[in-house]
Fold this protein.
Amino acid sequence: MKLVVPIKELPVSSPTPAKRGRGFWILAALIATVLIAAVLGGGWYYFFGRKPKVSMTVGLELNGNAATRGLWSVGTGEVLLVGDGDVHLIDTASRKKKWTAQIPKSTTPDPAWQATMNARFVRLQAWADELSRKRGSLTDAEEIIAFNADAAKYHEELTAVLAEAAKPNARAASATEHQPEQQPVRVPDAEDVFGGDRSKVDRLHPIEDMRLQLLADRIRKREGKLGALKSDMILKKGRAITAVQKVAATDAEARYNTELAEQQNDEESLAKLKPKEPTPVVTAQRAETEDGPPAFDDEFASASPKAAICKDRIWIIEGRHAVAFDRNSGAVKADVGLAGPARQIFADGDTAIIVASAGASAAQITKLTANAQPQAMYYSTGRREPAFTFSGRSQTPNVQDLRTEFSAVGGSPLRVDIRLKEKNVTARDAIKPGSEKELEAAAGGAAAHSADEMKSIAALIRNDAARLNGSAVGQMDDSTYEITLRRPFDPAVPEWNGILRGRVQIFSTPTLHLITAGTKLLAFDRMNKKIWEAVLGSPVPIFGGDTGADGSPQPWFETGGRLFFADGAFLTAFDSASGQVAWRLPSVGIRKVVMDGEGFLYVLSGNSRVESLTFAMDASFGDSVPITLRVNPADGKIMWKVEKYQDVWASGKDVYALRESQNPHDIEEQVFNRDKPAAARVKLYKLSRGSGNPLWEWFQPRRPFAVEAHGKSVALLFAEELQIISSICW
């Protein structure tokens, strides 16, 4: 029997007109709210949100020495600031200091004592190297006996030198410890005054020569001027980014050197005119390696701090010592004295390699590793001199008989001895024939009192000045050199010898030592083995001796099994293992290459004319506009190109550029009033990765000494403060 249950249909209610109207208005209100929020949010983002703003500042002494400050990237979102004797680790994301620590004061050694100790260590190092060479060639008992006797003398001398170096207060001698003892002045008696020998009275009341007074006054007044010129030169060299700034830095250096030479001449004249004094007795002898005044870069190296990041340690090299700070807490972990001012520093893993001056013709190599005693070696290196000598605006290659350069890869330092075999300096025209006609036509076709007119006139003046001072003829170092590669801390690694032609330069990447000369590029591994050799499209421009050693801009780097290397005319992508060329990108004057978080290259180039490779001094080439390129690293194809920026940074997906602009008045002042500093008009831009167009700009009436980009934050170091600006712009 089936039970049937009737289904009752429920009545379907239809919305009343009132309910339908209320639902419509609710929906409309929601849509309107969304639209208003979108409009307001978009407007806020466009007008306010995407704009940069100051998110943090760290004040510095207004009258502090800008040359003693520095800024470095430590890791993702962290920057290291050194200034006014303190070191700060700053988190750019949270805009907070993680810690602040004071740099311990560096003891100032007595110069005579330090020079003597350096010379003794250099001699001992050469002695040890000679003993190592002899050891492998001993053949009979007499040679072994003589070798053992020589080795015993070496160890005896080494023990004595180490004991002298370890004496308390030996390095930090007071100002009076090495001065002749001051004797009390005896009042002259009647015999001294009225008769007999008057020398005692004359020593108390010397007869002043008018020439002595004039020279002494001139020397005293010039000391203040030299100090001002020196500070001006350091600042201009530190901020020399554009071609105009580099010319200003060269001029400042020339003015300082001219005044310094005049000061030295006056001091020599004064010494000759002064009455002879008894020769004082000193307790330390002048070092044998001190064959002249300090090298020019060593004189200023002590003022410029350097930094190295070694895992959980941060090394700050200031003056004549290296201080290790704990990366997490800022606690001082080590304080290592150096033989002299630091020239270079290389960091890899937990190891830092420091190259310091040990005299005018010697260097100290120090290896610093966490939880290990410092290792130091001393070498005679030949006098450290610039690549060129200058007379006015004319430059001549400085061909040295011997010089030594250093590099480091993977915590393994490399010493390269460069000996002259055959000197050959070739001459060529430095000014392109007919360039004056081009400049005159450009000046005549430009608007009156415009920037283009002033640039053309300034270029004409510079060309005329070059002809007047003899710099219309350029010179190149085409000499032949013998180079020897050695490993200071790995004597078992065999040496490598070779012959190269042209100025020799040394570079380093994470896995390679690179040596260039002329159009040759040689790549070596850590065992001094040449793994490949390539031909460049143009000789590599002469860089400063330490370019790239401490994070300064460099037009080469290695990543992902590829080496990107810029010579004078091309950026070339090499396979790191084989040297095979993947692609070449032509551009004259490439000075920086960086990579963003997605692996794309950003290339900063002076965009000079090809003729500038030959006619290097021609002022008519100075009007080229720098360019910034976004390049696909796979095939070298240019994705976009923008003009006028003078520096570029990339961090993750964010790209920034800097431009310093000039007006006609600035150009006129630099031509006719070189002593007046040019006004600063600096803009920092954030660029679109897709097009290179600026997304925002940040104006400053001052030049930053250093810039570090970290994602959406940028740290800028000025003379009186560190400023961090941030933006949510994507």
Observations:
- Residues 385-429+473-540 form one domain.
